[in-house]
Amino acid sequence: MPSLGDPNFQRTVVLLGAHSIDEGAFGLIVNRPLDVDLAEILEELGHHRPSGGFPPVLAGGPVEPGHGFVLFEAGEESASDDDLTLPHGLRVSGSTETLAGLADGDPATRYSLILGYSGWHPGQLETEIEENSWLLAPVGSSILFEIPFEDRWAAALDSIGVDPGTIVDTGSTTPT
């Protein structure tokens, strides 16, 4: 929401990966592509692949932008105990082996490399939600993998019946 006042999150769609009142929250922005070539990253990791055919790399948030996470759809056979399991067969991994395996695997497998993450201290996200700084929508793989990046924010709003043209900054809260 505009009242949040943090440019890192202006018109973002954040996939909330983990949330605990005691430990805080972890999320990945899924609608901010970077001007970074995944083929080059794979090569830097020692995985030589021809360029082209890779999904865009995304900026996941302002925390640790050099740390990568792979968001992907996975069947049970490709599950790892180290992956963060989300609804609808979605997984998040910090493993370079997972990234390389997805890049080498079935081209129909949908995945994204996301650099950095969004994090909240215990109680911080709850407070921001109470202050109406965030709208909550259910996760959907179509928003994550099918809808163009520039349309994901409006699609997430539409999924909860909110017209993006009705969102205005009323100045009712202090930006955080």
Please report the number of helical segments.
5
> Which fold name corresponds to the CATH topology?
VC0467-like
Major sheet: 7 strands, mixed
Strands, count: 7
Structure class: alpha+beta
User: What share of residues are in beta strands?
Assistant: 15-25%
Q: How are helices and strands ordered from N to C?
A: EEHEEEEHEHHH
Distance between the ends:
12 Å
Query: CATH-wise, what's the superfamily?
Result: VC0467-like
Known CATH architecture: 3-Layer(aba) Sandwich
Q: CATH class, anyone?
A: Alpha Beta
How confident is the prediction overall: mean pLDDT? 86
Helix percent reads 10-25%
Low-confidence stretches: 172-176
Tally of domains: 1
The coarse silhouette is: globular
Measured on Cα atoms, how large is the radius of gyration? 17 Å
Which assembly state applies to the chains in this document?
single chain
Describe this structure in words.
- With 176 residues, the chain is α+β, with helices and mostly antiparallel strands.
- The protein has a single domain (2-166), classed as VC0467-like.
- It has five helices and seven strands, in the order ββαββββαβααα.
- Strands 1, 2, 3, 4, 5, 6 and 7 form a seven-stranded mixed sheet that branches.
- The radius of gyration is 17 Å and the shape is globular.
- Residues 172-176 have low confidence and may be disordered.
